[in-house]
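Lab notebook, page 48
Experiment: co-folding of the full assembly
Goal: obtain a model of how the components sit together before planning crosslinking
Operator: M.T.
Materials (sequences as entered):
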Amino acid sequence: MTTSIEEAFAQSPVQPQIRQQVLILYLGTSALDSNVIGWSRYDGTGKSKPTMGDSDEPPYRTGVDALIDGWRLIQLSQLQAHQPGHEYDVSYLPYEFVFERLVQI
Amino acid sequence: MAALVDRKHLLSSVEMAHFVSHGSVMLESVVPAELNERAIDVFDAGIPGYSYGTPLDEAFPPGTFVRELLDLPAVAGAIQSLVGPGPRIDHHAVHIRPPHGGDAQNMHGDAILDTRTDAFDVQLMYYPRAVTLEQGGTLSVPGSHLRKINQTGIGRYQNLAGQTRLVCPAGTVALLHHGIWHGGRRNDSDNKRYMFKIRFNPTVRQLRLWNTDDIDDPGVIKELTASFGWLHANEGRLELVNRAKLWRVLTGDQLFDLDYYLTREQLRPQFVAPDATDARLGSSKRASGWNF
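Observation: model returned without errors.
Model output:
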């Protein structure tokens, strides 16, 4: 017996009082203990709305400091080979680390 | 701006170097109060649009408010230094943020990814009224203009170390490289925020268009090597390489370098030292092969 996609996705989550907060840190190198040069936050509780230019000071000095404070690393960027002929080109920030934590609403 | 600007009003080499590293030049309080007062009515009424690439004389002939603004010696001198005489108007826009109005934009670069490395457009931003922190002036990221990104692909970047929120007195004109990362912030004040933007396209090669009397001033290298918080990173030296490349374009000096990066790359001697190179070659057999 199957249900419709809509019904399946309308089910309550196992932990209905839990929401995800996301922290993205851009670090100076690929090392998690290097310095934070950029940061972004998204709040799944809906209680706050972080936005562009909302702070001048990073929330942590390094990526490891975020771990120590309870954030869980869920993704880090791959190291990309430099494209021949474009070795000196600069583009998007290459060292992106995505963290999450689960909070109660 | 039809005639060439007097040399004394052009940017200096140190100021041009500042533009190359920061992606901007600020002319604070350069517009007189009387013009700032008139600007409000002009901007409230709106300024007609023109086709892309309209000559300046056609879009803003003498006698118009905008031409009066652009003919101010310091403004005219800076524009001529950056894009040369007779630029074309790419487009222009009046941006008015109502009190407590609008959401912050996501960070972006204007237009689309621009592949040019041997030319650039300049965006003039004019603020007829003082901009306070509360009014949410434009946020920009110094030094970001040489990075190849497309539009709001950088929208995920909320804050970068060393970013600047524009705060300026009335009558300030900012001139920005087209590639600068930026975004408009929310206006949390009780006052309207006015900004008038014009994008200029060059019609001449951007070669030594400024006053180069101070080309050997140590301040040039100091400006070219300026660093910002977000560049305390693995890519900081690559930024210097790209600035050196742009300085080569602007000065015509193909040997210019910062540090030794571009010079080192060209060290590929082809001369074979007759006594030092041994004459003997080893045998060069292929491998025996699979299943041998």
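Interpretation: Chain B touches chain A through 35 residues (CB under 8 Å).
Next step: discuss with group before ordering constructs.
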